[in-house]
Amino acid sequence: MACGHYLIFRLHTPMITGGRTRSGPAPTSGIGIWTRAPALESNQLMDTSSRETRMPLSEVIAVLQDLDEFVVSLDRLGSRHAAGTADESTVGTFIADWDVARRLARARRIISVALDAQLSEEDNAEIDALCDQGRFYATDSANSASADQSS
Q: What is the mean pLDDT of residues 122-142?
């Protein structure tokens, strides 16, 4: 397994469309892994260059397995699309059949719970504000255009 997996983002709700939840038990495991968070953005106030967050190794492995499946599968779907053997509906079928939204929401919850348990309310609020600046897909053209211009 490659080294250097850094937590560089804040996944701040356990639900895909729900609000931020700061309650609930932290992940439990006898084995943990330390992850180091590099600076999030140049306009940030919080210094994250030397801060660490502890997460149960079993949870990190579960998230890494899901992310690896998604990255490899989406790469393969992209190759098929480029070769003309897959269309846009193929990606939608993959997302639905592989329960991608729920599995990504679970990954977001795992990281969020760890950060909530170990960081101050002020740090968590800063991370939430940074995440709120992310790009989010929208179905109407006005929201899609504004989201695309934010990059």
A: 85
The structure's pTM equals 0.63
Among 66, 8, 64, which residue's Cα sits nearest to residue 36? Answer: 8
Q: What is the CA radius of gyration of the chain?
A: 17
HSE toward the beta carbon, residue 101, CA cutoff 13 A: 9
- For residue 83, CA distances in Å to 71, 76, 78, 79, 147 come to 18, 11, 9, 6, 29
Task: Give whole-number Cα distances, 8 to 5, 24, 30, 41, 67, in Å.
Answer: 9, 23, 24, 10, 15
107 Cβ neighbours under 8 A, 6+ residues apart: 11, 63, 66, 67
